[in-house]
Amino acid sequence: MEKDVAPIMAEYWEKAEFPFQIIPKLGALRIAGGTIKGYGCPGLSITANAFATAEIARVDASCSTFFLVHSSAAMLTIALCGSEAQKQKYLPSLAEFKTVACWVLAVLRVMVAWQPIGLCMGVYDMCHRYLKERKQFGAPLAAFQINQEKLVRMLGNVQAMVLIGWRLCKLYEAGKMTPGHASMGKSWTTLRARETVALGRELLGGNGILSDFLVAKALGDLEPIYTFEGTYDINALVTGREVTGIASFRPAASTQRSRL
Ligand SMILES: Cc1cc2nc3c(=O)[nH]c(=O)nc-3n(C[C@H](O)[C@H](O)[C@H](O)COP(=O)(O)OP(=O)(O)OC[C@H]3O[C@@H](n4cnc5c(N)ncnc54)[C@H](O)[C@@H]3O)c2cc1C
């Protein structure tokens, strides 16, 4: 990812195009199909699959979405719902990325929660390097207290996000994960990611709004993640229903007469 994808993604992002030439390289990683066993798929644990997703997002969130749709949404659906003949026919070539799959509707929110985690790891990496390299007022930016505080806040967020994601994986593996758990994981990680990426954008000064330095691109890439697979608000309400026993999706019945 660092060698073949990182150098070209900003250019493709600006053009709003996908670099299809990287697909064989994604195939060579041998992670497509994630947790599926057999049919040429790697049979990873849910935790290993989650970290693989995060490591892709660390370099490029668009690639991680492409990977999730192919591997989790499409391949997993075939593995769970397809006939034996369909699994034999489609999964081996999809596992090698010789064919590419797409699918709409819902993917699992556990993996989606790992996208903002990986994305923030990448932003933290970039800021850490940048603050040590760029000098202002005779010292590296890393020497200024406010910058250190922001960097540490970012690191704390990343650590907490990884732990929430890891806990979700363990609950899932134990068959104990509820919709409320998954929703809280997805909504909370995107909320923290928004803060983390905004801090990164501040730390880079003017370069924080240029796609060359990853952070502005990450800022843009995070927004769809905040919304798809249920917006932050709706996921919060799913968890709210679980902990209170009261669904609040529909507004309270409005009275006919206004007091105004
Ligand atoms: C890049 C991208 C990719 C997507 N990919 C897919 C996909 O592959 N498959 C798929 O099925 N969908 C996909 N979506 C659609 C996504 O799931 C929806 O955009 C999302 O669920 C929000 O729905 P909406 O856009 O209709 O917003 P709306 O429902 O119009 O919501 C607008 C605002 O009102 C809030 N709101 C709405 N209802 C309530 C309520 N009851 N209580 C409190 N607040 C409320 C929302 O939180 C939001 O802030 C994708 C979206 C994006 C941006």
From TrEMBL:
Its cofactor is FAD. Keywords: FAD, Flavoprotein. The keyword Acetylation does not apply. InterPro entries: ACX4-like, Acyl-CoA_DH_CS, AcylCo_DH-like_C, AcylCo_DH/oxidase_C, AcylCoA_DH/ox_N, AcylCoA_DH/ox_N_sf, AcylCoA_DH/oxidase_NM_dom_sf. Residues 100-242 form the Acyl-CoA dehydrogenase/oxidase C-terminal domain. GO terms for cellular component: peroxisome. This is Acyl-CoA dehydrogenase/oxidase C-terminal domain-containing protein.
